[in-house]
Amino acid sequence: MPDREKVALDGVPETLLWNLYQRAAEAGRPDAVLRDPKAVELVDALDYPFADRFGAGRLGQWQALRARRFDQEVRRFLDEHPDGQVVALGEGLETQFWRVDNGRVRWLTVELPETAELRARLLPDDPPRRRTVACSALEEEWTRHADPANGLLLSAQGLLMYFEPDQVHRLLAWCAERFPGATMIFDGVPPWFSRRTLEGRMTTAQGYQAPPMPWAVDAAEKARIRALDGVAELRDLRPPRGRGPLYGALFPLLNRLRPIRELGVTGLPIMAVRFAAPAHA
């Protein structure tokens, strides 16, 4: 049996291991709400104390339903643009490509150099359809590799909450200017969640502490996004129905009520922004 890959991350980069572990914990169930064999394969390949650090993976279904909602939007995009490009900002060890690949999509991962190097070892690129750019989502470099010719979808799953609010606004306005007509899907955290991370009060029983998440989403923040230059539409994306009385019955019912949904207790806010298309002469 080959040696497992030893990995040591902290701060924001370590969150990619939390996300991976939760998805794999759910995907390993016979009644899983998300089929993700690649995530299970990665957890098995890594030399990292997942359970000691993160616990028993009890938030697996919660995390998997978030990932499934992103998958639904990507599949919807590929139904309309089968040769389009998906740009995954801050992808971490997300294995979405293997869940949604239609055999034609072009996939661009944008990651910080440290994480890009880890992905290169565990999930090596397969040009020309799957490539990685090692830089921050806030840097211009990745935009040179984005190609909207056959349709473009931008995705930022589990990323923007780690930025300052003005950085999020600049990124959205910047994408609206460079990629008119494109769509960006992303998620955030509600204000109470953000405050707890800033106060250092989001800690597991095992001692893992979530890093600060300065950017929070509420009705006022959504209004600010809608007012940004180039933003044509912002819509909420509800988490799909899951398994059991909580995720299969109660949460879907509560998610029909916007004030409850925006509290973030039934799932983190997920949104899609459509950028204004260029005016025709």
Could you describe the 3D structure shown?
It is a single chain. With 281 residues, this protein is of the alpha/beta class. It has one domain (65-275): 3-Layer(aba) Sandwich (Rossmann fold), CATH 3.40.50.150. It is 38% helix and 15% strand. It contains eleven helices and nine strands. The protein has helices at 15-27, 37-45, 50-54, 60-80, 96-100, 113-122, 165-178, 191-198, 219-226, 244-254, 258-261, and strands at residues 5-6, 46-47, 85-89, 106-111, 130-134, 152-156, 183-187, 231-236, 270-275. A seven-stranded mixed β-sheet has the order 5-4-3-6-7-9-8, with helices on both faces. A two-stranded parallel ribbon has the order 1-2. The protein is globular, with a radius of gyration of 18 Å.
Listing every helix as H and every strand as E from the N terminus to the C terminus, the arrangement reads: EHHEHHEHEHEEHEHHEHHE
Number of strands: 9
Beta-strand level of the residues, as a percent range? 5-15%
Put simply, the count of helices is 11
CATH architecture verdict: 3-Layer(aba) Sandwich
CATH topology annotation: Rossmann fold
Unreliable residue stretches: none
Average pLDDT rating: 92
Structural class, from secondary structure content? alpha/beta
Main beta sheet strand tally, sense and closure: 7 strands, mixed
In helices, the fraction of residues equals: 25-40%
- Overall shape: it is globular
Specify Rg, calculated over alpha carbons. Answer: 18 Å
Spatial strand order of the main sheet: 5-4-3-6-7-9-8
CATH class: Alpha Beta
In the CATH hierarchy, what is the superfamily?
A: Vaccinia Virus protein VP39
**How many separate domains?**
1
Alpha-carbon distance between the two ends: 63 Å
